[in-house]
Amino acid sequence: MKHRSILSILSIFVLIFSLSTGHVKGQLFNVGDKDLNFTVGYGTYEVLKNGYRTMLPPIAVSFDLGFRDDLGPGVLSIGGLVGATTYKDELSFYGWIYDYGWKSTTLIGALRGTYHYQLINALDTYGGVHIGVLYESWREYGTAPSYDTRDATLRPVFNLFAGAKFHFSDNLFVLGELGLGVGIPFINIGLGLKM
Question: Domain 2-194 classified CATH 2.40.160.20?
Fold first, then answer.
């Protein structure tokens, strides 16, 4: 159900802006282009079995700088990504909800390499990799005794992704990315600015 509402909102947003502005020429990503991306993520790799989770959706800011165009028909960009999310788990047992659980904060920082190649007219399509680190901290709350002790962790991040950007003006665009890996959501949607 949530997948449908996110896709519906994104579809309506793209439709409104594509109808309200003329076609923008020169939408391809080129050497020297600088894109600043703001995204909200959906989908995590953790499942809570005995309770429920309230979560701040993962938010991220990433940057792409067109770097080289002599490696084939597309453009290689380099950049970075920073992001954060937080959640609160509340435990339940046979329908009873306890005032006990964990609160977690996750921060991510990664280098970003992207290869832009136009597969569809009017879209900047691309694929790439994130390599970086993920910091995660936990804190227990509530009245129940401690069942799980967790220390803050720092671990490597490796993520493959593919995405597309649709420009509705010379310097504004919407984007969507699908990711596969650790630390970054499956689906990211957002807005961007060509600087």
Answer: yes
